[in-house]
Description:
Blueprint: H1 5-8, H2 12-19, E1 23-27, E2 31-42, E3 70-75, E4 78-84, E5 93-103, H3 105-112, H4 124-131, E6 149-152, E7 161-163, E8 177-179
Antiparallel strand pairs: 1-2, 1-6, 2-5, 2-8, 3-4, 4-5, 7-8
Helix pairs in contact: 3-4
Amino acid sequence: xxxxxxxYERDPAAVARELLGxxxxxxxxxxxxxxxxxxxxxxxLSDPASRAAxxxxxxxxxxxxxxxxxxxxxxxxxxxxxxITERRGKPSxxxxxxxxxxxxxxxxxxxxxxxxxxxxxxxPGKLTRALGIxxxxxxxxxxxxxxxxxxEEGERAENVATSHRIGVRSDLPEHLRFFIPGNPFVSR
Length: 188
């Protein structure tokens, strides 16, 4: 059962923390899924690292959509998968940085061309390639039961560590990266 839309209509840091342990499902020709083990929160206009910091553009327009909408963009040749948070018109979101594979592991290996399971989804670009997520996946409501990409209940993580976001030049002072410590699929 997917997490409902109200789950996403909150502060991005709270959503990012509470997504840990939930299951990201991509249901296409082969269903692939993974438990979310690492996230980052982004605060939109007030956050210099956010895609919305420079205002609404052709790329960032998805951040102004409803909470629970997917936003996928490319950085350094890699697609990054995000989910919009808060209310429509207030751009903020959560980057899903890593998942622990559950279903469709053979398909993930084929897509990533690796047999090292801990290398399949241990970073935002790796997980999108393994799960088959691309820019065509913008605008999907991840809270609907029949969506091709959805986030399901799973077991909420009890033990959560935090740090500053990875690869961010101008970061906010608070820790906005959340991860399950000791999990081998957390990015390095």
